[in-house]
């Protein structure tokens, strides 16, 4: 999976599409943040006694 994303980044930079690369980078960061927020929400839900 990492190899797949690396190839996308390299091809975008090689083609000189910096704007598309930045859009891709921001999208990747958003996905990571959403994943972290979901994990935190799940952890907090597990701490609350029923």
Textual characterization of the structure:
The protein has helices spanning 2-14, 18-47. With 50 residues, the protein is mostly helical. It has one domain. The mean pLDDT is 85.
Number of domains: 1
Helix content: over 70%
Largest sheet: none
Q: How much strand content do the residues show?
A: under 5%
Q: What oligomeric state do the depicted chains represent?
A: single chain
Return the structural class.
mainly alpha
Q: Segments where pLDDT lies below 50 for 5+ residues?
A: none
Distance between the termini: 38 Å
The counted number of beta strands is 0
Shape call: elongated
H/E order of the elements? HH
| Number of continuous helical runs | 2
Q: What's the Cα radius of gyration?
A: 17 Å
Task: Write down the overall mean pLDDT.
Answer: 85
Key descriptive features of the protein:
single chain, mainly alpha
Question: Can you describe this structure in just a few lines?
Answer:
The protein is mainly α. Helices cover 86% and strands 0% of the residues. The radius of gyration is 17 Å and the shape is elongated.
List the helices and strands and how they pair.
Blueprint: H1 2-14, H2 18-47
């Amino acid at each position: 999976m990492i190899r797949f994303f690396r190839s996308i980044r390299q091809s975008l930079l090689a083609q000189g599409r910096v704007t598309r690369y930045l859009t891709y980078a921001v999208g990747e960061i958003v996905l990571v943040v959403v994943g972290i927020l979901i994990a935190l929400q799940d952890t907090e839900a597990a701490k609350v006694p029923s």
